[in-house]
Specification:
Layout lengths: L2 H9 L13 E6 L5 H10 L3 E4 L1 H9 L5 E2 H5 L14 H8 L5 H9 L7 E5 L3 H5 L6 H6 L4 H11 L5 E3 L5 H11 L4 H31 L9 E5 L11 E4 L12 E4 L5 H16 L5 E6 L2 E7 L3 H10 L2 H4 L2 E5 L5 H6 L5 E6 L4 H10 L4 E4 L14 E5 L2 E5 L22 H11 L7 E8 L2 E8 L5 H24 L5 H9 L3 E4 L7 H8 L4 E4 L6 H11 L2 E4 L8
Parallel strand pairs: 1-2, 1-4, 2-3, 4-5, 11-12, 12-13, 18-19, 19-20
Antiparallel strand pairs: 6-7, 8-13, 9-10, 9-11, 14-15, 16-17, 16-18
Helix pairs in contact: 9-11, 18-19, 18-20, 20-21
């Protein structure tokens, strides 16, 4: 047998048949020292020799843990205020050398380099430093780690023989395998390798984004989404689709929802569910329900109970509610499961489900998607997720539409009654989730509780959104209500009475007075809209002539 083959077989003896590699020597150099002392103590207990640097070495020494300083390995002291510590062949040779190649082993021996089997590194806190208020460019530059990413990349590249740990949360994983396997399994080394490369890629992208903006005055956008789970198809059967997840998101989200029942979510399901969740989020402080069809709220209501809210939302457009996606702001109870017993919907989102309700829904709706998603709390500008949309050759990014109105100004002679303000705010919330051009008609159906009586969505002009859609839907709903209640007045009078209590909300200003005139003709007396048109004065004059009260909010809510 050739001597090289004999030597290679001997070198491979440190690796078990399952690919487990023993750890004899470890390099520890961390900025985040969470869990460091206990981890290092356990490594020492396994007979592993520790090498360390600067502050990490000081922490270990203080804890009574024996470790060799890197400069004793390299023969060079830390230089240039710590800028150069581990950038040396005695370190990187020990990490990068292949244990299965005799030539590499000969070179290690000739250079008096000992192999390093475990590299534990986390990086200077550059991301935290640049988020500090009034931080100087010099401080940011000094917190760009050079040696750390190099160590991570070296160890990650040689995962066949070396274990790399870039996150303190992985310390227990390493210790568990040392205890159970007396080494680290190949699959674990591979996963930790990928995680290390992800870490350095994200780290470098933050540096690029910061310096490009600071020095070049150029915005750079990096996207970091994981998963790539293939969906059944896209919007249509001939289109392909995938779902990627933002690993940095810490807020409740649709992507992180718990699917408790039903078929896997499709591309369209996700779009409808996102619209439903956003609508519920905006009414999170109330007991409310939303019915979504093709991303538009066709039903929206608050109520004294959850089933009361859902029944009112469903009644807003029961035909469109068939095959819809629902979202509720409170945990689903047995009354909700009973209400849905004979109804077909694609999915239901709620913060939680009681056990009886969940069991009932599963029994009667085998394929119904039940999604458990808590409503997000205490969102700030920093934690709100911006929206992204691709265009040919580029991508658009914008901050969320999280301002309901900037002012509450009534320029008309007929003043807006304060008692109608809560209803108007509900109408605005509904309106900002309806595709433009959007008109919403809302009513207080019981004291303190509101519902969307009619809406017009996605029209090229606002007058059609009112006359051909929202007005028609509202009249239909009132006719149905009239048949149930049987009030002691003619239908026309009943509709007139109800419209006198309706608030009309528009997502954008009125370019002409025609919408005021059409609304007044229908008996509507209260309007909220952003204002800002060159012809605002004409709409104001029309209101004054027709006895209509109108509020300008100063905030447009286009949704395309």
């Amino acid at each position: 047998m050739p001597s090289n083959q004999l030597k290679n077989e001997k070198l491979s003896s440190t690796m078990s048949e399952t690919g487990t590699v023993k750890i004899r020597k470890a390099l520890l150099s961390v900025s985040d020292k969470t869990g460091l002392v206990n981890f290092a103590r356990e490594l020492s207990r396994h007979g592993i020799t520790l090498i360390s640097t600067g502050g990490t070495l000081a922490t270990l020494t203080k804890a009574g843990i024996s470790a060799t300083a890197v400069e004793q390995i390299t023969g060079f002291p830390e230089m240039f205020d710590g800028r150069v510590k581990t950038l040396h062949p005695k370190i990187h040779g020990g990490i990068l050398a292949r244990r299965d190649l005799a030539e590499h082993q000969d070179q290690l021996k000739n250079a008096s380099i000992e192999p390093i089997d475990l590299v534990v590194v986390n990086l200077y806190p550059f991301e935290q430093i640049i988020d500090k208020k009034d931080v100087s460019l010099e401080e940011c530059i000094e917190n760009i780690d050079i040696g750390g990413p190099t160590l991570l990349r070296s160890a990650a590249k040689n995962y066949a023989f070396v274990t790399v740990v870039s996150d303190p949360s992985d310390y227990p994983l390493v210790l568990n395998e040392l205890n159970s396997l007396n080494g680290i399994a190949l699959l674990t080394r591979q996963r930790l390798s990928v995680k290390a490369f992800q870490r350095t890629a994200n780290y470098d992208s933050r540096i690029d984004s910061f310096l490009s903006k600071k020095i070049l005055q150029e915005e750079v956008l990096y996207l970091n989404f994981h998963g790539g789970r293939t969906l059944r198809y896209g919007e249509n059967a001939h289109q392909k689709a995938q779902l990627f997840i933002n690993p940095q998101n810490s807020q409740p989200s649709l992507a992180a929802a718990e699917l408790l029942n039903g078929k896997e979510m499709s591309y369209n399901n996700y779009l409808d569910a996102e619209s439903a969740y956003a609508c519920a989020q905006n009414l999170g402080g109330t007991t409310a329900a939303v019915v979504i069809k093709h991303t538009n709220p066709c039903g929206y209501a608050t109520g004294a109970s959850l089933v009361n809210a859902l029944s009112q939302a469903w009644a807003g457009d029961p035909i469109s509610a068939f095959g819809s996606f629902l979202a509720l702001t409170q945990p689903v109870d047995k009354d909700i499961s009973q209400f849905l017993k004979d109804k077909f919907i694609e999915g239901l989102i709620a913060p939680d489900f009681t056990s009886p309700a969940l069991q009932s829904l599963k029994e009667h709706h085998k394929n119904l998607r039940l999604l458990k998603i808590p409503l997000a709390q205490n969102l700030t500008k920093q934690t709100r997720t911006p929206s992204l949309r691709s265009i040919s050759g580029g991508i658009l990014i914008q901050s969320p539409d999280d301002i309901l109105y900037e002012k509450w100004e009534c320029p008309t002679q007929q003043k807006f009654p304060p008692v109608y303000k809560a209803l108007a705010e509900f109408a605005l919330i509904a309106c900002k989730h309806v595709k433009s051009n959007a008109i919403v008609l809302a009513r207080e159906y019981e004291s303190g509780y509101f519902h969307m009586l009619g809406m017009g969505a996605g029209q090229p002009n606002r007058i059609d959104a009112f006359q051909k859609l929202s007005l028609v839907r509202a009249k239909t709903n009132l006719e149905n209500e009239y048949q149930i209640l049987k009030p002691n007045v003619p239908l026309s009078e009943y509709i007139k009475q109800q419209f006198a209590r309706v608030v009309l909300a528009s997502d954008a200003f009125f370019p002409f007075p025609d919408l005021v005139q059409a609304a007044a003709s229908a008996g509507i007396r209260y309007i909220v809209q952003p204002g800002g048109s060159l012809r605002d004065d004409q709409s104001i004059s029309a209101c004054n002539e027709l006895g209509v009260s109108m509020v300008f909010t100063g905030t447009r809510h286009f949704l395309h």
